[in-house]
Amino acid sequence: MSANGQNRHARTGRLARKLAVAGTGAAVLALPLIGAATASAATPAAATTAVTAATTYPDNLDGWIRESLDIMAQHGIPGTYEGIHRNIMRESSGNPLAINNWDINAVNGTPSKGLLQVIDPTFQAYHVPGTSWDPYDPVANITAACNYAADRYGSMDNVFSAY
Q1: Residue 25, Cβ density class (10 Å: 0-12 exposed, 13-18 middle, ≥19 buried)
Q2: pLDDT in tens, 110-124
Q3: Assign residue 94 a region: left if phi > 0, alpha if psi is -120 to 50, beta otherwise?
Q4: pTM surpassing 0.90?
Q5: Residue 80 exposed, middle or buried by CB count within 10 Å (0-12, 13-18, 19+)
């Protein structure tokens, strides 16, 4: 073969290799994009399931209200963060161990307890499944009180004084 032919073959080979590399590069670049589109379509469902299964709440007033709201939503109990927070601040100033030992309920032997100052018979009657039976448990107290307020006033949002 002539030197020209070899050179042409070498150039053609180099060009083919460059195209192959470029083509492979394009394919390699395209695969993550295709894969990302496919993966992202599956990711939200998987992430939602993981978040739902692993939802944790801080052990403070904000967390107790948010956990109660999630439980209330599962049981069709109306109420908003603002309405619950407003009533908690009025009733107990956010102290889950608050107890009223001086009102008529206390005189009758059933003091109001917890964040939303619920008496034991009301707590037991309006207890929401999946929560503690302890009236001092913040989430159980909020959820039972909101269940009572929904039955009596339509929602905790409609309560603006002692209830």
Answers
A1: exposed
A2: 999 999 999 999 999
A3: left
A4: no
A5: middle
